[in-house]
Amino acid sequence: MIEISALKSPINNQLAITGSKSESNRLLLLSQLFENVLTLENVSNSEDSQLMQKALANKTDLVDIHHAGTAMRFLTAYFSIQDGRKITLTGSERMKQRPIKVLVDALNELGAEISYQENEGYPPLSIVGKKITKDSITIPSNISSQYISALCLIGTKLENGLTINLDGKIISVPYIQMTIQLLNKVGINAIFEGNTIKIPFTENIKAQTLQVESDWSSASYYYSLIALSQNSEVKISTYFEDSLQGDSALQHIYAENFGVISTFENGVLTLKNDENFSPKSIIELNLINTPDIAQTISATCVGLKAKCHLTGLETLKIKETDRLVALKNELEKFGAIITITNDSLTIEGYNNYTETPTLATYNDHRMAMCMAPLAQIYPIRIENEMVVEKSYPIFWEDWKKLGFEIKSV
Predict the structure, then answer these.
(1) Residue ranges of the chain whose pLDDT lies below 70
(2) Shared domain check, 155 and 105
(3) Is this model's pTM higher than 0.90 or not?
(4) Catalytic residue among 292, 343, 364, 398
(5) Residues 204 and 220 grouped into a single domain
(6) The domain containing residue 56 runs over which residues?
(7) Is there a catalytic annotation at residue 292?
(8) Do 228 and 178 share a structural domain?
(9) Per residue, what are the HEC states of the chain?
């Protein structure tokens, strides 16, 4: 457990954050599918991306991806088309509780051979690689975008291509768009129109070097920190205004609701306070396209003692933990009065509190990082702080660079 003490002066510093985990894992899989003709720069140093690289290089019949949810989904699809290869794909105890049935059903319907070793619908999986010739599938659209992206990525190597028909309202559209745009970027003519995705079979792509943009989800903690500070400025790289990442919506969300201004110059994103900002009486946001920043926004509201109503959060219940329950449990330690439903979180007001809160992290990297900015307002303690390695291994080192005092308790 660590204790974090507030800064005594305005923040003015510059940091470099490594590449997006989401972009990195998609490009790592694409590189493997196309026999490593892609040279990737600024790849994420997250545990998830390291596990993804290790799994892709694994030549044994057992692949363990621990807590890496994206890797589980992408690799289920990848190994299903490795004709003749038999593997067991497993993970941590929490991973064995995270559903994967929709993706497995879709792959099996296409012609894959995947079965469950323990509980129906959950890892670990037994996968026998097959040559898949079926070229279309219809799946529910209100599912994790990672299932859809996994199908898009392997569709490039199905001899008849793949048409994916999405049935119903699509959630997490930006992550699907990211996958399509990355396919386009490497020269694959993937199309996403309405509720239909078309992925052409592609034998080869040209050798090229790609720079992975830094992770916008990781940037969210600095947006929160500036929102909870005064007369402060942080520069972080490498970021672009025309980002492929859905979480780049942070620019507008934090400008309109928390008075944080974003400017870009040569790949450096500068965040600073808007001196003319007037707080809202209640913050209302639909985060259906940006669920990964819901925790940060909730914690920012608590730091400012702001009321909020956040919706579009249905996918938070099947992440590393049930993030809605976790947020309610931990933010109530600051006196927040919170109600949650299956897809929303509402902060109705605040009671007084006196104790220094000790915050649980639930083996969830984002629970640790979203709470850290609150140290600017309150002394806080965070349990199992090294859970941040999943996506941002040097997070605490960067916070020490900003001037925070962090000590073991």
Answers:
(1) none
(2) yes
(3) no
(4) 292
(5) no
(6) 21-211
(7) yes
(8) no
(9) CEEEECCCCCCEEEEECCECHHHHHHHHHHHHHCCCCEEEECCCCCHHHHHHHHHHHCCCCEEECCCCHHHHHHHHHHHHCCCCCEEEEECCCCHHHCCCHHHHHHHHHHCCEEEECCCCCCCCEEEECCCCCCCEEEEECCCCHHHHHHHHHHHCCCCCCEEEEEECCCCCHHHHHHHHHHHHHCCCCCEEECCEEEECCCCCCCCEEEECCECHHHHHHHHHHHHCCCCCEEEEECCCCCCCCHHHHHHHHHHHHHCEEEEEECCEEEEEECCCCCCCCEEEEECCCCHHHHHHHHHHHHHCCCEEEEECCHHHHHCCCCHHHHHHHHHHHHCEEEEECCCEEEEEEECCCCCCCEECCCCCHHHHHHHHHHHHCCCEEECCHHHHHHCCCCHHHHHHHHCCEEEEC
